[in-house]
Request: fold
Amino acid sequence: LWYICSGMGTQWAGMGRSLMQLPEFRESIQRSDVALKETGLCVSRLLMDADESTFEDTVHAFVGLAAIQVAQIDMLQKMGLQPDGIVGHSVGELACGYADGSLSHSEAVLAAYWRGRCIKEANLPPGGMAAVGLTWEECKAQCPQGVVPACHNAEDTVTISGPQDSVSKFVAQLKENSVFAKEVRSAGVAFHSYYMASIAPALLSALQKVIKSPRPRSARWISTSIN
Reply:
């Protein structure tokens, strides 16, 4: 049994809403509410009242994705299931940390909150991301100035990241050449790009307050961000 935890781009208005009918899921979301109480963010209300614009907010998207996946892990654990392997991408690695026992429930959702808040407060230039049907080497050769290959998803699939206008133009160009290209919902942020360097000090400071005693990951968690 493997747990595969997803990152930004998978959020949608209404996600988690039907699952709130399940007691185990709802109780986990309510624990996230408690963990986030001092931030003023209520996950249960976020999920139940979401509209099409709700998850365009970076904080809402990160917290929603993290809390839902933590709740799903809690449900599976109550069913007696434990993963043999864990893998995730981007903010999904916070859920991996929880599934692996490296992060507590509150650490996972608070880390998601502060990641989103630090990015939001940085007032970064408008950014975009897109999945493209190119190899990593092809991406490096073809990406226009400012656009970089950000995530090596598969041998012939890469996520690119950079200024919104440049990403959109490159996507249109690839489509004209019959190459798969689709923009990713990234809340106007160029994640996994050089833009992120500017938030690193603030994010590290916030995470050190939230995760006071870091615990190493086990061998079953295959990280997609470090070797």
Q: What stands out?
A: The first helix runs from residue 23 to 35. The two ends are 22 Å apart (CA to CA).
